[in-house]
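Collaborator request, handled under Task 6.
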Amino acid sequence: MHPGMQLLIFAGIFLLALFICNLIAAGLVIALYGMKTLMAIAEMNASTPHLISALWILQLVGTTFPIIAAPVFFAKIVVNDSDDYIKPGFRFHWALLLMVFIIMFMSNPTIELLSNINQQMKLPHYLKGLEDWMKDSENSAQKITEAMLQMKTVWDMVMDVLLIGLVTAIVEEFMFRGVIQTIFVRWTKNVHVAVWITAILFSAFHMEFYGFLPRLLLGVLFGYFVAWSGSIWPAVWAHFLNNATDVVVTYLYQHKVISENPDDQHLFNYISYAFSAALLVVLMLIYRKIALVRKPMPDDDGEELD
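Structure tokens returned to the collaborator:
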């Protein structure tokens, strides 16, 4: 099957799963909490009873489940090749997990710089309608995130780390760095092109336009983690570290354990930005060297040789 056709089929499977699961999620919210609660979600009225529970139902049933169901169904049923399209194996050097930890830690200044650049984005005046829509979409996403990250106890934090950190990392990596990146590797015959296209789609998928560049960088890092190791798990680990750190820092800030606002994008200076960017390149090259030592070399078609 041509990779272009694979992409169309996968997109169809995902959109169908997304549609069905959102209907189910909406039905569950109505059955449990009533139509008013479902309608109140659009307005993000914090005083609405059961708002947070309803948001979690919509998130887990309506979004998270189809994101994992579509790639697993596609890999196991459509192409019958889970090893290549999801890459669930653990055949990589353990040192890669340590390298991922260091890379994610050292990438923070670079991510902050890209975020600041992104925040200054200004569209031409004739695209003001589009810009207003983008800002409204960003604000709505921010309100939903803030509502779901209200953590009163340490157990709330643990649950958010598991759901937002671990579960989200697994399902999104299965879909993007698993199925989608593999399709583009087969289509373009070029790992770098596939990594960047997938990262662009990954960032666009979140519909947060003023966070596009930092998420694009994360997508690129995750993509190379998988491409060079041959396993999905270094990217899942990186994705988990990124999300879980945000959850923990938000919890600590909410309970006044730390004073630094996690939304503050001015924690570093230009020297830190330059040092982080340069070190990031060096660390990625070290990661690649370690990964390729134990990974079979690809043939001319981008397939691994046994």
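The cover message to the collaborator said: "The chain is about 75% helix and 0% strand. The chain has two domains: 1-80, 82-294. Please let us know whether this matches your experimental observations."
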